[in-house]
Task: structure prediction
Amino acid sequence: MSAPSDKTLVIIPTYNELENLPLIVGRVIKAQPQVDVLVVDDNSPDGTGDRADKLAAEHPQVHVLHREGKGGLCGAYVAGFQWGLERDYTVLCEMDADGSHAPEQLHLLLAAIDDGADLVIGSRYIPGGKVKNWPKKRWILSKGGNLYISLALGAGLSDMTAGYRAYRREVLEAMDLDELSNAGYIFQVDLAWRAIEADFDVREVPITFTEREIGESKLDGSFVKDSLVEVTKWGLVHRGEQLKNAAEEISRMVGHTVKQYQRKR
Result:
């Protein structure tokens, strides 16, 4: 009997990752030779797209999607999701090109999918999760931000901004991917929150996140502020709905009690 992970696509967005791309693709192929890889390149000026085409010519499980310009990480993943959903993949994964997500740990995510999970997040902040080569300030900012997000939404997850993930195709098919927020990394929170709201089985597995060794991070600090502002709005709406539902339930119970009392009289 086949498992969902038997038809897995790993999506790797790239922009100026000429040196990193062959390394990460090689590691994926070695760690999980049965999975396919889709490189989504945003017209990298350093030649990453051409290098991706060469890798695809060398390895039949590697595919390339070229985009016309630098459209951002969210847009790259949405394009990759749509490409995969148009084909027969049952599991679609997110993975960074810079080596921060270890392909050698992909089996942890896929095992959870095969165990029944709908969305699996590789978490830095649950027991067993680790972060390597980050300055203390960045770790505190990320850990604190994720704690705030979890409390604001009541999501019960420790690392909703994490980008190492595996989705069953049904999760992505149930979402309007064009509506995803594109404020920094907030789209990762958006995807996880939508899955939770839709009652999908969302789980976390511990992974080791390693800061890139080649190239520079493409994020600046502004995404933290933008993300937390957006999440605060969602949290207020969510809590407002919770209060409304609680009030309606209390009203129903009071009404029922009054009716019972009137019948007894």
